[in-house]
C-alpha cells in the first residue's frame, strides 16, 4: 500500500472505504463501532482519519493509528466519556454534532490522550453552550475559558482563533468556568439527512462545516457522499 495511490474498497464487512494520500475516509456507513481490522490494514499508513456521519458512540481501536495528526468524528453519537489512546502526534480533533454532554469529563479524556492538540471543534454538542443550543455569548465565553484552561496548546477552538488575552484569562479563571451539565432530554427522532435531490443534506453540511473551513487546519481532499472538496483550507488559500 502506498499513501499516494487512491484506493476504494468495500472492506471485509462491506463498508465503503477510501484511502488516499494518508487520508482514510469511512463516511456515512452506519458504523456503530470502529473495527480493529481497519487498524490492521490502514493504521501504519494513515495520517488523517475521517469517520463522519456514522453512529459511533465510543471510538475504540485507534491504537494502531499512531501517526494520525487529524481525527474527524463529526455527526456521530459520541458520548462524553471516551477512551482515546495516547497520541502525541494528534493536533486536530473535530467532534461537531455529537452527544457530548459532560464538558469536564470529555475534555479530561482529550487532555490525557492528546497533549499536543492545537485545533478542537465541538460545536452542536449539548456541552457546547453556543447559539446552536440557545445560549448567549457569556455562556459560550465561560465554556471557552474552561476548555483553554485545560488544553493549553489550543490555537483554535470551534470557529474562532485563540488570542493571548483570552489565553491568559483562561489560565487565571478557567478552572471555575465549567458550564453546568445540560438537562438530558429524551432522544428525538433523527432528522432526515436529505431530500430527494440531496439538497437538504448539502445545505446542512455546508452550514456547519464549510462555514468553518475559512480558519481551517490543513488542506486535504474529503471523499464520500458528503464530499465538499477541500475540507480544511488554509487562510492563504482563500
UniProtKB/TrEMBL annotation:
Gene3D superfamilies per UniProt: Ribonuclease Inhibitor (3.80.10.10)
Domain of life the protein comes from: Eukaryota
Pfam families: LRR_9
Family annotation (InterPro entries): Leu-rich_rpt, LRMDA, LRR_dom_sf
Compositional bias per record (Basic and acidic residues), positions renumbered to this chain: 191-207
Annotated stretches, region: Disordered: 187-207
Protein name: Uncharacterized protein
Species assigned in the record: Planoprotostelium fungivorum
Amino acid at each position: 500500500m502506498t499513501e499516494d495511490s487512491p484506493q476504494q474498497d468495500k472492506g471485509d464487512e462491506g463498508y465503503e472505504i477510501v484511502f488516499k494520500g494518508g487520508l482514510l475516509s469511512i463516511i456515512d456507513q452506519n458504523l456503530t463501532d470502529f473495527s480493529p481490522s481497519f487498524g490492521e490494514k490502514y493504521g501504519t499508513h494513515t495520517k488523517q482519519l475521517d469517520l463522519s456521519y456514522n453512529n459511533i458512540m465510543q471510538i475504540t481501536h485507534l491504537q494502531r493509528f499512531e501517526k494520525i495528526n487529524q481525527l474527524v468524528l463529526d455527526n456521530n453519537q459520541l458520548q462524553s466519556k471516551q477512551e482515546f489512546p495516547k497520541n502525541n502526534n494528534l493536533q486536530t480533533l473535530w467532534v461537531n454534532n455529537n452527544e457530548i454532554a459532560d464538558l469536564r469529563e470529555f475534555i479530561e479524556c482529550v487532555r490525557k490522550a492528546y497533549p499536543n492538540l492545537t485545533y478542537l471543534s465541538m460545536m452542536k454538542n449539548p456541552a457546547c453552550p453556543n447559539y446552536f443550543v440557545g445560549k448567549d455569548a457569556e455562556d459560550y465565553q465561560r465554556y471557552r475559558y474552561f476548555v483553554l484552561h485545560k488544553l493549553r496548546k489550543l490555537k483554535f477552538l470551534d470557529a474562532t482563533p485563540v488570542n493571548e488575552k483570552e489565553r491568559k484569562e483562561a489560565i487565571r479563571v478557567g478552572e471555575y468556568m465549567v458550564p453546568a451539565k445540560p438537562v438530558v432530554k429524551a432522544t428525538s427522532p433523527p432528522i432526515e439527512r436529505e431530500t430527494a435531490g440531496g439538497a437538504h443534506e448539502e445545505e446542512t453540511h455546508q452550514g456547519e462545516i464549510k462555514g468553518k473551513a475559512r480558519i481551517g487546519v490543513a488542506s486535504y481532499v474529503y471523499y464520500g457522499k458528503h464530499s465538499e472538496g477541500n475540507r480544511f483550507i488554509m487562510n492563504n488559500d482563500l
